Hints:
Shape: globular
Strand order of the largest sheet: 3-4-10-6-8-7
Amino acid sequence: MQSGLRGFEPREAMRMGTLLQDLRYGIRILAKSPGFAVMAVLTLAIGIGLNTAIFSVVNGILFRPLPVRAPAELVGVYNTAPAGGLVTHEPVAYPDYRDLRDQSHSFSGMIGYDLVPLALERNGESQLVTAEMVTENYFQTLGIQPVLGRAFLPEEGGAPGGDPVAVLSAASWKGHFGGDPNIIGRTIHLNGTPMTVVGVAPPEFTGMVRGIGSEMWVPMMMRSELHLGDGLTNRSARWMFSMGRLKPGVTLRQAQEELNAIAVRLQAAYPATNKDRNVGLVPASDVKILPGVDRVLFTVSAVLMTLVGLVLVIACANVASMMLARAAGRRKEMAVRLALGAKKVRLCRQMLTESMLLAIPGGALGLLAALWTNRVLNAFQLPVPVRLALGLSLDLRVLAFTLAASVLTAVLFGLAPAMRTSRTDLAGTLKDESASASSTREKRRLHQALVVGQVAISLVLLICAGLSVRSMQNASRINPGFEVRGVAGASFDVGLRGYTREAGAQFYERLRERARSLPGVESVAYANAVPLSFEVRTTGAAAQGHDTIPEKQWPEVDSASVGPGYFETMRIPLLRGRGFTQADTAQSPHVAVINQAMAQRFWPGEDPIGKSLRVEKQEGYYQVVGVAADGKYRTLGEDSRSYLYLSLTQGYESGQVLLVRTTGDTRALLPQLRQQARELDEHVPILRLQTLEEITGVSLLLPRAGAGLFGLFGLVGVALAAVGIYGMTAFAASQRTQEIGIRVAMGAQQTDILRLLLGQGARLTLTGIGIGLVAAAGFTRVLGSILYGIAPTDLPTLGGVSMLFLGISALACYLPARRATRLDPLAALRKE
């Protein structure tokens, strides 16, 4: 045993001593070339930093487990039903949840939750907050212990309306209440209902919906008291998400079989609502947003990681080119070390050690860049009334990714010079550095191959950026079918204040009259939804004579309820008939306005005015009184879509948007609308107060994000490629110093030398562009679904980007080439 240790320790000590020697020598070598070291580290920091930042986002959304106790034990409980040959996962009805929870024995606990908007009254005003309605066992089942106060008690899930209590999130406690240590027991008002704060959740817990930060939690039994409708007894309404924690020893399959049996019993007991309603279990770790939606997230994440991976490859090729150029000046050093007995493996290890000394600082700087990016993204909020909570952080997965990226990067850019060193021509190099012509040609070819690869990859990134920029320009020029300028919008939901139908209608009418009397106002109208604002409402509809089939088989159309003056205020052309008027009341015959696409779909070749149709879940027929021009309703890039307008004066809704067209400053009108609403009810929740341009601006979020992201990748890639081309030309000029001196001595002009070096750079660039165009033709097809008015292989974009790259390449080649033309021919001829 001891003899074994004596034989082991010297070998280990020798290896450690050799490694330390390599590190010390590598540090000395790099210290002699600080400019090279700084440039290499910064280049790698850009590549590693971008990769770390994007992976941090992907990790936060897709890979980070829920901040709860033992998340692997949690499974999502969904209703599943066949739909077009596919299985869809849907929320469950509260009565179904109660039956599943009470009749199953596979779970130690089963919870229900629903994300809802609530109006929080503070300082005399109402502010919209995002909250979760949860079952009483929510915190206990998830294993969440409040940092202040307590969670909900088991008895706070009994009778409806009997438990007006709330738990605040840490962000809400600090943001809305200044971190008041005496918050426990304080009364707050939500939707006009007094609620007692009983606890504050830990900072890391922001709810069960990834990416959305719940600001507070209230018992499910308070749903009616908070004016959110009676969903506790309606088995038809599936609005609640559910999750269960498996008991120890119970498998997912066993739990699924038990719930299948319960679902069959519910189908027999409630055939009217539960026919074909099955139950599906999915591990919580497998669900990020919703099954089905997650596929899109994974696809987008894969595309982003591929793009930033290409940037890292460019950075590696760039540094590898620089190290190859440096290796040319170290040929004699390596030859001497080989002559003195150094093994080629040792020289390769030395080169890889130097690579690691560059990659590790690059990775550290990349981490700092990712940390700054995370702070920016964590503070980012979309222009929608929902609080984002990405919670990005540099956890162990991100740190491991960065370390792996740094090591892989070191190997990638250090491998070429290391392999080249191992093939050093000892005799030729010691005799004359210029003697090994074949070695020089081989090194030059490798250098050129790296540059061609950089150009090809950078061209793909720049083409993606060009397509995205042009797509954004096209999107901003698309006619949405209405005039967005000059309209102010104020969103209300008086139902959150407990208004009855009569009181709500009176409030909206009085506010309408007040808004109409403001200076510069041309017209005023209400709508329950604004197009291009992420508010998508659909309904089934059928023309008279085609409504004998079940409602579920009626064609689905987008819809909105609007008031008198809507088409004039939005400046939507009416092609035939009329819009809605004050004479369209609940007592008068129901009327509807349709767009041209719906008219052609329901009554092709006929005049739809006077025709009748039925609307899903509504009694009687609606008479078509007008046909409006088509527009854009969900996205700017959509094809013509059927759209149905119903009258708000005939079908009241508690949530409405006041739209006011003015000839004056639109933004200056917003505080006036707030004042008019507060004079009518100082506590009325104002959900949104924006211009119509700002409301519909969310439709440009995707093209703007794409243009910004791809533009960043493209610019970084081009900058790195330009540095690579510059380095290649400088390296080529240094390797051909004697040749250039001979040419000048024989009468060559500066233009001849420029043509020689620029021609070499142009050939490499054109080769890279050719390869890049072929790669881009395949890769950009992935972007086709998010491009507006432009094909993924748009020739002007491909040609323009190629010409731009040629110009950048020419400039990068010109600078070192011009310097080469100023060489003294005698000094060049004397150079070894």
